[in-house]
Design a protein that fits this description.
By secondary structure, this protein is of the alpha+beta class. The protein has two domains: 23-102, Immunoglobulin-like (Sandwich); 106-186. Helix content is 47%, strand content 25%. The protein has helices spanning 2-19, 109-129, 132-152, 159-186; strands at 23-24, 28-29, 36-41, 53-58, 61-67, 69-72, 75-80, 86-92, 97-102.
Length: 187
């Protein structure tokens, strides 16, 4: 049974590495998330993607133009590759517009670190005092820290490593919570 759990965990972790690729540019991005791609929904059976362009500009200064590539049956994409801080706007040749904000600040990192410290302290206290309730609370906190890591990430880690760290915290939190619940029932 333990080998099966380890095998399933390894498959989940490895599949997250396989899915790591360029991300779609969405709202506020961190410089480590760049390059990313912008998508334009287009009926590609009517309009070819290579006939469309996107212009990236900063307030009024044009940064660069790029011809779109086919992304799927109903969308075209272009790669955004400007990691300087600030807002970059883009204008498709169809008239659609958007903006990408590159922000270097990660205000949630301190909260994530605090959550990590508290969850490890609660785990230690629960283990030393043989209290399943404190251990279960630490498991829940490990899981919550994993969710926060997924949402906010770390400024010094790539998306791939951030997802890996988050998976470790999710798995550890789930395991601690389930095990402490089973020990509480058995007692």
């Amino acid at each position: 049974m333990k080998k099966l759990i380890i095998l399933i965990s390894m498959i989940a972790i490895l599949s997250s590495f396989a899915m790591a690729d360029l991300n779609e540019c969405q709202g506020v991005m961190h410089p480590s998330d760049i390059p990313c791609y912008v998508l334009l929904p287009v009926n590609t059976s009517i309009t070819a993607c290579n006939s469309l362009e996107v212009q990236f500009y900063n307030i009024s200064d044009s940064l660069y133009n790029q011809t779109l590539d086919q992304y799927g049956p109903n969308s075209c994409n272009a790669t955004f590759n400007m990691s300087g801080l600030g807002t970059t706007n883009f204008l498709y040749s169809t008239g659609d517009t958007g903006s990408i904000v590159v922000d270097g600040g990660r205000t949630m990192e301190l909260l994530i670190y605090l959550g990590m410290v508290v969850s490890f302290l609660l785990l230690g206290f629960g283990w030393l005092m043989k209290d399943e309730n404190i251990t279960a609370i630490s498991g829940i906190l490990f899981f919550v820290v994993g969710v926060f890591i997924t949402i906010n990430g770390f400024s010094y880690l790539s998306n791939l490593l951030t997802i890996g760290v988050a998976l470790v915290f999710w798995a550890l939190g789930s395991y601690i919570f389930i095990r402490s619940g089973m020990e509480s029932i058995a007692a």
